[in-house]
Amino acid sequence: MTPVLLIGNGAREHAIAEAVMRSGRAPRLYAFMKTNNPGIASLSTEARIGRYDDLRAIVAFAKERKIAVAVIGPEDPLGHGVVDALAEAGIPAVGPTRALARLETSKSFTRNLLEKYRIPGNPRFRNFTSPAGIPEFIAGLTGVVLKPDGLTGGKGVLVQGDHFQTPAEALAHCAEILRDHPGVTVEEKLEGEEFSLQCLCDGRTVVATPPVQDHKRRYADDRGPNTGGMGSYSCADHLLPFLAAADVAEGLEITRRVAEAIRRETGVPYRGVMYGGFMVTAAGVKLIEYNARFGDPEAMNILPLLKTDFIDLCRAIIDGRLESLAVEFERKATVCKYCVPTGYGLPSEHSDAAGGPSRIEVGDMRGARLYYSSIDQRTDGLYMTSSRAVGVVGIADALAEAERVAEAAVTAIRGPVDHRRDIGTEPLIRKRIEHMQQLRKKPIPSGG
Ligand SMILES: Nc1ncnc2c1ncn2[C@@H]1O[C@H](COP(=O)(O)OP(=O)(O)O)[C@@H](O)[C@H]1O
Ligand SMILES: [Mg+2]
Question: So what CATH class is 191-324?
Fold first, then answer.
């Protein structure tokens, strides 16, 4: 019997829970969640509700249940040092220690690491702890992106052209960021197509999972505000329509070198997920950021395709034996679409959460996978909060079929809900391909 602790309460963790329960190692799932996820709870032997900064409660639960492996879903507990606390109690975890989680929690740490170890992929950047020197640096860039240091829940980064227009506005934003954060990273705005390369690392060996493209914008055609992610897709050939095998190899090579650099820098092996957010540009593959965990939605694209036993995989990561494990994924296309409350992504005063939680009815999923996110199960049914409610995933030999399966399932969910119809469809994919063709025709900007 293998008692597994899973920390987290979203659709990503529901997909992890499913992968754990598919294991042939007699899994027993113990979930520690901020709020009750009925999907995870239904797969668990026991679900406990608590706060992710309550390390004492998490460790006590793990000890009580004699946990063999802990899997950390979201970034918050990693940032609070849950892996360090579990290690002190002798419980191994898939996830980096607090110092190593800086790969995600501190954008300046990661940019500096790449620079120090001469790893390619950085845009032009500089870290600032005061406004001094920012105007001069910005003057030398054609477009800028401002990144606060520290976790911001995906809502802290400001991009010129999207969130502000002029250099003067950029300076005002920097001053504001520096009031609430220890630093700000100012970097060159890159142009290209983004992809997520979720890699597994045992400290030495880095293994890539199939690349995925996420859709952050709230509305079709990439309009509206940024969100936690409205959906994502992956392809049967384990590439993306605008991405060549060499581009994926470049992202993997950057990640391998970062894994080695972080071990040298800290003396500690990184054991967990290194999710590289990359952008393929006319000048090659660039690093946008690292996350220290699976993506949400991207975990829902790759975990259902995993052929390798998930508990074996966790053990290999913990014991530093990834090199000798064959990590395999089915050659299928996937499309994930998030069902969200209609008010999701709007400023809270316009969101319908103001009127109290709304009930939804999940219809016939017709072959799609369903993962609960912010869903409350009451005696009279399922209720949404103001966040993403349910992720559905279509899996098929071809992308178009996977899209049809996901679309049919998400439209079967009844209530005051919305989703992005265009994710995984041919017109949007064609737009991505054409975007890259356009960029590759333009002269490559210097210094990038
Ligand atoms: N240097 C950059 N050039 C262009 N766009 C960027 C750059 N850095 C970030 N972005 C955009 O901003 C988004 C959020 O930035 P990211 O670094 O991923 O932070 P987070 O996910 O923590 O909000 C990215 O997905 C990308 O669309
Ligand atoms: Mg990001």
Answer: alpha beta
Ligand with the closest atom to the CA of 195: 1
Q: Where are the domains of the chain?
A: 2-94, 124-188, 191-324, 333-425
Q: What is the pTM of this model?
A: 0.96
List, chain by chain if needed, residues with CB within 6 Å of any ligand 1 atom: 123, 145, 147, 152, 154, 156-157, 159, 187, 189-190, 194, 216, 277, 288-289
**What is the whole-number distance in angstroms between the Cα of residue 288 and the centre of ligand 1?**
6
Residue nearest to atom 11 of ligand 1 (CA): 159
Query: Along the chain (448 residues), what's the average pLDDT of each consecutive run of 10 residues?
Result: 98 98 98 97 98 98 98 98 98 98 96 98 97 96 94 84 96 95 96 98 98 97 94 98 97 98 96 98 97 98 98 98 98 98 82 71 93 95 95 98 98 97 98 95 65
333-425 in CATH: which number? Answer: 3.90.600.10
- Which amino acid, 281? T
For residue 275, the ligand closest to its alpha carbon is 2
User: At residue 381, what are phi and psi to the nearest 5 degrees?
Assistant: 140, -165
Looking at the structure, give the CATH architecture of the domain made up of residues 2-94.
3-Layer(aba) Sandwich (3.40)
Give me the architecture of the 124-188 domain, per CATH. Answer: 2-Layer Sandwich (3.30)
Residue nearest to atom 26 of ligand 1 (CA): 288
